[in-house]
TrEMBL record:
Source organism of this protein record: Phocaeicola vulgatus (Bacteroides vulgatus)
Domain spans labelled Sialidase: 277-344
Entry-linked InterPro entries: 6-hairpin_glycosidase_sf (IPR008928), 6hp_glycosidase-like_sf (IPR012341), Beta-prop_BT_1020 (IPR056425), BT_1020-like_b-sandwich_1 (IPR054490), Glyco_hydro_65_C (IPR005194), MGH1-like_GH (IPR054491), Sialidase (IPR011040), Sialidase_sf (IPR036278)
Record domain Mannosylglycerate hydrolase MGH1-like glycoside hydrolase: where: 700-1015
Keyword Hydrolase among record annotations: yes
Domain BT-1020-like structural beta-sandwich: 427-582
Keywords: Glycosidase, Hydrolase
GO molecular function, one term: hydrolase activity, acting on glycosyl bonds
Name the record gives this protein: Six-hairpin glycosidase
Domain Glycoside hydrolase family 65 C-terminal: from-to ranges: 1033-1088
Length: 1103
């Protein structure tokens, strides 16, 4: 082989190995667990409910504790016949020390469980039995129960339970060495009774003749036999027998002693397997063979403990395991494809004191198992897992799906609105048999009579630096017990603590000492308000409206993301240095302490942070854009918000946005960055400029009226309303109380824009205060620019569109511009009249709008060109121009196929479609681009002013008309060109106008053109592309115009709309925002709408 070929072959092999490695389960996240802390310093997923279902008690044997047996472990879970089934093995005190049996518990809801009943009883090993290589023999010896798989739901709907009887001749003998007795099965019937026990598998030394139960084929129940045969025929079940089965039994697919197998199915049908130590492989034939070598999942930290993997109901994947060399904490990692896992969050981070030591007993929540594929799906579609703590007490965890790593909304919780605990999907619960959490009317109740443990509830909130927490609090006693209230960061570090002590004190911790707040009385309700400032490291407590105390934080934190209530002090034992084995019994291990009860009601949190309105995004993640924009220039003109304050201003004012196509994202922030450059402080309030450089034809303060409509539409999304309030007032009242002198030099759709602003902010008072100004402006236009035929005239330069094909600087032609504007203004004033109940006003302007509509359709529609065109006298200008789409900006045309035909021109390269966007005149016209260059020509070159109008009109047409001409692909394509066109010399840029073929800005190197504020972009992003359609009512309407497959994700966040905070997000596979796949709409962080696809969603009456 030649050297070149050798290198090629080696490279190909290397690539194949690399691809193969990535085709196995692996972890690429950055979060790791710190075992020094019981919770690993992991942030919990939202809404996990950890429920203790069985508490061991040797001193007081009873049916509810398995009759006093204290080694309990290896639980299995199924959902069948409308309820949960959980079975686990149990020994009197130690692992691998008989006797041994399997208990079964059931639950309708996962929270309330039946007492354990024996499913597989104690089994006697035949006297004289021994194992190869040993001389000792069994005498009065019972078998050891063991199982790696617990349930099977047959094709006919039978529920089969299974277990295994092994043999341990002494406490260090391995009962799972292939020298056991065999595997047994038993049917669980719908009425709760059990069928007979049968063997389904015998180990090499046993058969029907020397065992107590028959082989399953002896059953006369044919369906039962068939169900058992299904198990034997299923390699996924046989694979879970490997430890107990005969060594090298051909029945087992993979003859390796990998322990605690589980699996799940990928969409392509392949199986993913996981074993102890996070070993993993792939099977492409249903589990009959497995890819070799079997190796540890890269990036996973998992010692000699079990790991559970499952495909969730939303199509994502989860692994639940102990991510350390210890059996704590219990954590969850998520994946969008079942192979690459990217997150790590807490499920269970408490370690109850081990009350009863014993053989191989380990500290922590361990041996986690969920519901195996085929064994049922709970109706809530959530992830349920079961496990033991300390191999002593049995637990289940309820994890809501989609699995949420972060809270999107602050708390406003009236517990009277909840009937059952499972409805508390925003609260994390730690509820025990002797320290239960419950609901009682308006109260969330924590009770505690457990000498060794406590009840705990926790509300996860968006990470907050300036936090206010309020709640009602009642203790039913003040002479015993302890309630701790802590405020935690994402790593579980408490910055401050409040306590109700056993000597009747309500106190606050500050450093090593406490400050007393008051003496509390039993049975009395206290209204508690807590203000926490991360910046000042200070907590201030108010009780019943009066300041009770103030303390410094005892630990600094970057932000607070959890508020926790706990009926006991935090534990630190065991530690990483605690010996692995302990055989003692704690004093009073089975005893209770006096019952203490605490009640919490009306829990609420609020944030005073700048980004408090954002549920998912943080401004800091987008600040690098602003830093880059600032670095692009030497700021030679600064107005009200200079570059030095640009970032702060944007953090305080703009909606946040991200998407998978980063040029859109960059342009979004660039256009906000440029917009604030034009906010100008004047003696009469804020104004907004068009040019930064002074223009001789401008009004006072260098203001130009041409793009007021654009300015209002773009600025209506600013969170601080004062900017736009003052900008509008400056135009209408800034000239000695009247309108600016040159306001009528340019056409206006201001009344429509002001109403459009109201549709976003809902500020009725401001809108109504402007009515007289808007009516006066309308009257001025009627007086000066109305033709005898009822239409309105305008010179093209007064439209801001000089050197056009159809018009002239002094020509009084009836143009689609001003006539559409006047229609839009009249329609707006009519709607205001309807809103205020002024029937006269509503009718007056409604009739004006109807008249203009009729005239525009009758006289400006060119039936030959299928287009709205300028009318010169009594004849059409016979040219299609972009202004012919402006009627749809105001939804003027009737829904008619004849009018719809006009939109075909945006897709025609002879019409308006050009490499860098939409031209201002049709490209086929002989006068296209014939008026020269550099004189602000509107004879075909691309003007963002016109692009913004056309794209707004296009979005209206696609949303408000039953049309079939345009698709979201057309809209997206034009928005994409708009984004791409806004660059000059390799950097973001917005100027006056550009060449339609080369994309060159025709005044790009002139100072006047930089940052030209003459168009909208972000309003198009919000209302068109993302599809938030502003309305006057309390319904949120969203209709994204993004083709399926274009973006994997987007999020529009921190939108102040009708006084509420809106979030709209799309997550193709659910992995980006962990809220499930699809389109989601939130109000104040709470979901109000969802669709699986990018489609119109109406969320009625949610504001």
């Amino acid at each position: 082989m030649e050297l070149k070929q050798l290198f090629t072959f080696a490279a190909a092999c290397s690539l194949a190995l690399s691809v193969s490695a990535q085709d196995r389960v692996h972890y690429t996240g950055t979060e790791l667990s710190n075992p020094t802390y019981h919770d690993g310093q992991l942030s919990p997923v939202v809404g996990v409910h950890n429920i203790q279902v069985m508490r061991a008690n040797r001193e007081h044997p009873a049916p509810d504790n398995g009759n006093g047996w204290t080694y309990n472990h290896q639980s299995m879970l199924a959902y069948w016949n409308g309820q949960f089934y959980m079975h686990y093995l149990s020994d009197p005190s130690d692992e691998h020390i008989p006797p041994s049996q399997t208990f079964l518990m059931t639950s309708k809801d996962g929270y309330h469980w039946t007492n354990p009943v024996t499913l597989f009883p104690i089994y006697r090993v035949p006297d004289g039995y021994t194992k190869p290589g040993r001389t000792d023999k069994a005498k009065d010896l019972d078998a050891i129960m063991h199982q790696r798989v617990g349930f099977y739901v047959s094709k006919s709907g039978r529920l089969i339970a299974m277990g295994n009887y092994g043999v341990a001749l002494d406490k260090k003998d391995d009962p799972n060495d292939g020298n056991g007795i065999g595997r047994v099965v038993r049917e669980i019937k719908k009425d709760g009774s059990f069928g007979p026990i049968y063997f389904i598998y015998y180990n090499h030394a046993f058969n029907e003749k020397n065992t107590s139960y028959p082989y399953f084929k002896r059953s006369k129940d044919k369906e039962f036999v068939k169900a058992c045969q299904e198990i034997l025929d299923n390699p996924r079940y046989r694979m879970q027998w490997v430890e107990e089965a005969d060594r090298n039994d051909p029945l087992i697919p993979l003859h390796k002693e990998y322990k605690a197998y589980c699996d799940y199915t990928l969409p392509d049908g392949r199986l993913v397997s996981l074993w102890k130590h996070a070993l993993t492989s792939i099977s492409e034939d249903g589990g009959n063979t497995w890819a070799q070598p079997v190796e540890r999942a890269k990036g996973f930290v998992n010692s000699n403990a079990k790991i559970w993997g499952q495909r969730l109901s939303d199509g994502t994947y989860a692994t639940v395991y102990n991510p350390s060399e210890f059996r704590w904490p219990l954590a969850i990692s998520l994946s969008k494809d079942g192979l690459e896992y990217t997150t790590l969050n807490l499920v269970h981070g408490e370690i109850t004191p081990m009350r009863y030591g014993g053989n191989y007993k380990s500290f922590g929540p361990q041996y986690v198992r969920g519901i195996q594929e085929g064994n049922g799906t709970p109706p809530d579609g959530d992830l349920w897992v079961t496990y033991s703590v300390n191999k002593e007490d049995m637990w289940v965890s309820h994890i809501p799906v989609p699995v949420r790593a972060h809270a999107s909304a602050h708390a406003d919780d009236n517990f009277a609105n909840y009937k059952d605990l499972n409805e508390l999907t925003d609260w994390n619960l730690y509820s025990l048999q002797w320290a239960p959490v419950s609901l009682d009317g308006k109260w969330l109740v924590l009770q505690d009579k457990d000498l060794f443990d406590y009840a705990r509830v926790e509300r996860k909130i968006p990470a907050t630096k300036e936090l206010k927490v309020s709640f009602e609090l009642m203790a039913e006693q003040n002479d015993k017990g302890l309630l701790q209230i802590e405020f935690l960061d994402e790593n579980g570090i408490a910055c401050s603590r409040l306590e109700l002590t056993s000597d009747g004190l309500f106190r606050a911790k500050g450093g090593a000492r406490f400050g007393n707040l008051l003496k509390y009385e039993p049975g009395k309700t206290y209204k508690v308000e807590v203000e926490l400032s991360v910046a000042n490291r200070m907590v201030t407590v108010y009780v019943d409206g009066k300041k009770a105390g103030q303390r410094m934080f005892f630990a600094p934190v970057p932000a607070i993301e959890r508020v926790m209530f706990r009926t006991g002090a935090q534990r630190t034992y065991p530690t990483v240095d605690t010996p692995a084995d302990w055989y003692g019994i704690l004093p009073n291990a089975g005893e209770q302490e006096p019952l203490c009860t605490y009640r919490i009601a009306n829990f609420k949190t609020t944030s005073a942070d700048k980004d408090a309105g954002a549920a998912f995004l943080k401004y800091k993640d987008f600040k690098p854009y602003v830093d880059y924009f600032n670095s692009m220039e030497d700021e030679n003109i600064a107005q009200a918000v200079p570059n030095a304050r640009a970032s702060q201003w944007m953090e305080e004012n703009i909606p946040l946005f991200e998407c998978s196509q980063k040029n859109f994202e960059e342009m979004y922030y660039y256009r906000w960055w440029t917009l604030r450059k034009h906010i100008k402080e004047t003696p009469v309030g804020y104004g907004m400029t068009e040019f930064l450089v002074n223009r001789s034809y401008a009004d006072k303060y260098n203001l130009i009226a041409c793009a007021i409509g654009h300015h209002i539409y773009e600025s209506r999304w600013l969170r601080n309303p004062e900017y736009l309030n003052q900008i509008i007032h400056t135009w209408y009242r800034g000239n000695e109380g009247g309108p600016m002198a040159k306001m009528t030099k340019f056409s206006s759709w201001n009344a429509d824009a002001v109403l459009g602003r109201y549709m976003v902010d809902g500020n009725k008072e401001f809108l109504l205060d402007m009515v007289k100004d808007l009516e006066a402006e309308y009257a001025r236009w009627e007086k000066t620019n109305r033709l005898s035929n009822g239409l309105y005239w305008q010179g093209d330069v007064q439209d801001g569109m000089e050197e056009s094909i159809s018009g002239g600087r002094r020509k009084q032609y009836a143009r689609p511009t001003i006539n559409s504007y006047m229609y839009g203004n009249a329609k707006a004033l009519s709607l205001i009249g309807i809103m205020t109940g002024d029937e006269g006003m509503a009718m007056k302007y409604g009739l004006k709008a109807d008249s203009i509509k009729t005239l525009v359709q009758d006289k400006l529609w060119n039936t030959d060109h299928h287009f709205f065109e300028t009318m010169r006298g009594d004849a059409s200008a016979e040219v299609r121009e972009a202004i012919g789409y402006i009627p749809w900006y105001f939804n003027l045309p009737d829904a008619s196929s004849q009018y719809d035909m006009a939109w075909k021109e945006v897709m025609d390269e002879k019409g308006f479609s050009a490499p860098y966007g939409l031209t201002t005149a049709e490209r086929r016209h002989p006068e296209f681009r014939t008026h020269g260059v550099g004189k602000c020509e509107w004879d075909g070159a691309i003007w963002p002013f016109a692009s913004a109008q056309t794209l707004t009109a296009m979005a209206n047409f696609m949303n408000n008309y039953p049309q079939t001409v345009l698709t979201d692909s057309v809209y997206f394509h034009q928005m994409e060109r708009y984004v791409e066109s806004q660059h000059h010399r390799g950097r973001p840029y917005i100027g006056e106008y550009l060449d339609e073929v080369t994309g060159y800005w025709l005044k790009g190197d002139q100072e006047r053109s930089r940052y030209y504020n003459h168009s909208t972009f972000n309003d198009l992003m919000i209302t068109g592309l993302i599809g938030l359609r502003p309305r006057m009512d309390n319904t949120v309407e969203v209709n994204p115009l993004i083709p399926e497959g274009k973006w994997d994700y987007f999020c529009l966040d921190n939108v102040l709309y009708h006084g509420r905070n809106l979030t709209i997000l799309w997550d193709k596979d659910g992995s980006r925002y962990q809220r499930g796949k699809g389109l989601h709409i939130y109000v104040d962080g709470k979901e109000v709408g969802h669709a699986d696809t990018l489609t119109r969603v109406l969320c009625e009456n949610v504001l």
